[in-house]
Amino acid sequence: MAQTYILSINAGSSSVKLSLYAVDPDNRKESAPKLIIESSVSKLTSPPAVFSYIHRNITGSSQKAEDITKELEEALPHDAAFELFLVHLSKDPSIKGISSGEDIRFACHRVVHGGDLDKAVAISHETYHYLEQLTDLAPLHNAPALAIVKSCLERLPKAQNIAFFDSTFHLTMPGYIKTYPLNVEMARERKIRKYGFHGISYSFISRSVAEFFGKRIEELNIIALHLGSGASICAIQNGKSLDTTMGLTPLEGLPGASRSGTIDPSLVFHYTSNAGKISHSSTSTMHISKAEEILNKYSGWTALTGTSNFSDIAAKASSTSIEDQKYRLAFDIFIDRIIGYLGSYYVKLGGKVDALVFAGGIGEKSSTVRKAVVERLECLGFKILDDGGEERVKQTNNSGIIDISAQISDITGFESTKKQILVCNTDEQFEMARDCALDDDFWA
Predict the structure, then answer these.
(1) Cβ atoms within 10 Å, residue 239
(2) Within 10 A of 273 (CB to CB), how many other CB atoms are there?
(3) Residue 237, H or E segment
(4) Cα–Cα distance measured from residue 49 to residue 43, given in angstroms and rounded to the nearest whole number
(5) Partners of 224 in the beta sheet?
(6) Residue 357: what are its φ and ψ, rounded to 5°?
(7) What is the rounded average pLDDT for all residues in the chain?
(8) Which residues are designated catalytic?
(9) What does the pLDDT look like over 161-193, one tens digit per residue?
(10) Which residue would you say has higher pLDDT here, 45 or 238?
């Protein structure tokens, strides 16, 4: 059977990431999906937006197309960003048979909130309607994801659309952790409980770390940190989510670039007298209150420092200048909140922790953050080298669909310690493509 394609789509609150994979249908369980195009549109809500279109692993083509990175003149809605990708894909001479989009057999969508759905599902009219009802629980993520689903249905009519949910990974949390102390009947009726997010990333991390250690995933106990502009931590026991920092919505837990994280719930009513009113930024498909807008879009370290770029904050955090004290404050708040959850999760796991695993844009790239976190954990037996040894990482070979441990790096730096510290280059798009390739129900 001829090669076919899986398109993985990851819609964030202000960005869209797209990865196109080539798959051999006859060998899909033995050979990993091969990444051939990696594209993104970032800064969608704060122009100029930035569009990139990068070729990966393309062989056998006599024609080559140039990689693209360029600024766009205006802000774009998510569906328009997706259209921009399709336009470039249709004109790409290096990929045979893709110009019409008909060879894209699956479009895999990261959907943050899946409610009680316990696995990835093909998107039908009923599924789409159910996800629309959940939009109020994750308005900044589900709404743009569904806008792209709608665009896919129109532009790629022959592709099967599949929704993968961040919340699914956390369905294993016990009732005493995912239940809020509220009226039980009302909470059940309104679907109010802790759901947790970043689950697709935690699934990738768990599988990767288990392979790195040569363990069955059912034997794995780790604390994973997905640290980016949206940040969370997950305690994983026997390969399953025991607890995570995000809750009913992604707002609970750690602060982020524009999210407050956990605060006193009554604070917002002191902060503004319009907390319950509908925000002017609401749309026909996204309804948010003024309180939700303030805590989701106008808080976090951007509110503290004026920048959403945490690398700038980390770089200036050590400055002794009075005018740079705001950066130190934001940095210290972030580290303090991380440490609080790590201590709690270490105890919840009974001290049986195979590794502390850093992932996400900040977790993977910021040695300053990793060092600050680990220094505070020395009382638990974690330690990291100070002499640059952290960057001299040990790696194992990637051997296809099962062993992806080449993307795991041991930065512990001490042979004698049993408390390992790892960095994982998490890949939500690959995780969706891989699961899609392995699921016989989708290929029936």
Answers:
(1) 19
(2) 9
(3) strand 232-237
(4) 5
(5) 234, 357
(6) -120, 120
(7) 87
(8) 166
(9) 999 999 999 999 999 999 999 999 999 999 999
(10) 238
Taking CA atoms, 179 is separated from 95, 196, 232, 236, 345, in Å, by 49, 12, 19, 18, 17
pLDDT at residue 338 is higher than 60: yes
Phi-psi region at 418: left, alpha or beta (left = phi > 0; alpha = psi -120 to 50): alpha
What tokens were used for 292?
A: 């939700």
* Sign of the dihedral defined by the CA atoms of residues 263, 265, 267, 271, in that order: positive
The Cα–Cα gap between 193 and 249 comes to 9
Coil/strand/helix, residue 230: coil
Q: Which of 7, 9, 238 is nearest to 110 (CA)?
A: 9
| Rounded-to-integer distance, Cα 327 and Cα 333, Å | 10
Instruction: Say what the pTM is.
Output: 0.90
Amino acid at 60: G
What are the angstrom distances between the C-alpha of 57 and each of 21, 34, 130?
10, 7, 38
- Measuring CA to CA, which residue among 224, 173, 223 is closest to residue 194? 173
**Rg (alpha carbons) of the chain, rounded to whole number:** 22
How many Å apart are CA 163 and CA 295, to the nearest integer?
A: 27
Half-sphere exposure of 318 toward its Cβ, with a 13 Å CA cutoff?
A: 6
Q: pLDDT at position 406, please? A: 31
Alpha-carbon distance of 265 to 262, in angstroms, equals 8
